[in-house]
Amino acid sequence: MVRRRAQTGRTGDRPSWFARLWSLSTGRFGIIVVAVTALTALLARFWTPFDPQRVDVANRWDAPGIPHLLGTDGSGRDILSLLMAGARTTVWVALGAGVVATLIGLLLAALGALTTRWVRESVAVLVDILIAFPVLLIAMMLSSVWGGSLWVVIVSVGIGFGVNIARVTRPELRRVLHSDFVLAGRASGLTPVQNLWRHLLPNVAPVFIVQLSWGMAVAVLAEAGLSYLGFGAPATEPSWGLLLKDLQTYISVHPLSVVWPGLAITLTVLGLNLLGDGLREATDPTLSRRTRTTRSDIPQPAVVS
């Protein structure tokens, strides 16, 4: 007699989303870079090798070595301490802009996909109008009223990329809204909010995550660029953009000093982008439902006596 071994297909047999993320090279790189940046910002809140704002004219433009591992700038400030302190600003701006973009993006996407026709069309027109304003222009308008600050960067990037998230997420919500499992949930008595939470958001999460990670990466660039132009962090606040602005004047004389803030910005932006790509693959429901077929997973006939 021949019988086939039943496939279990249990959820517990599949790796968790973090295990799937870690198995991707892009995911590992993004996790490491973002974790190092976050831990550096947390450490800088309590300790830095030197006071970031301490001026030491006697040790200006010291080469990398002991005790200044990355050297000093034209005022004798320790560059490593400035980078560590600037990481706090970077993390704060990225998280703040991410929260604002998430709230605006999901609200506009939900209104544009789940409401009556006239509301959907009004939201679509509003999104088309707002998306015409670049982040820099929004920041300049806000700074003309409230002055240059980190809040200006957070709100301007949050508005700019919140609208972009809404534009991309809205058609995905409309597509998933007509799926069989959503209709079944509606027929079983789920409210629109419950359907949104259980079925719609998990299925648009991959698209949303990519847009959000991109927005947080651009928030890092926007903070550096706006601080460089004078619309971002004030001069008393440690910032990678301000440090780059101060050091670029001497790039022909001390080129190595400009490398460190530029490298920090580049790696952070790259890490956020790659982390978003990895999270999309790790959390995509259509990918997580596909089990990888291995030799041990193939049903084997078993002969019993």
Describe the structure.
This protein has 305 residues and is mainly alpha-helical. It has helices at residues 17-23, 25-44, 79-114, 117-130, 135-146, 150-177, 180-187, 192-229, 240-248, 255-283, 285-288; strands at residues 2-4, 301-303. Strands 1-2 form a two-stranded antiparallel sheet. The longest helix has 38 residues, at 192-229.
Question: Per DSSP, what share of the residues sits in E-state strands of 2 or more residues?
Answer: under 5%
Cα end-to-end separation: 7 Å
Which sheet architecture does the biggest sheet show?
2 strands, antiparallel
Q: What does the overall shape look like? A: elongated
What structural category do the secondary elements indicate?
mainly alpha
The helix content is 55-70%
What is the CA-based Rg, rounded? Answer: 25 Å
Element-level helix/strand string = EHHHHHHHHHHHE
For the secondary structure, the number of strands is 2
**Number of helix segments?**
11
What order do the strands of the largest sheet run in, or round the barrel if closed?
Answer: 1-2
Mean pLDDT: 79
Low-confidence stretches: 1-13, 288-305
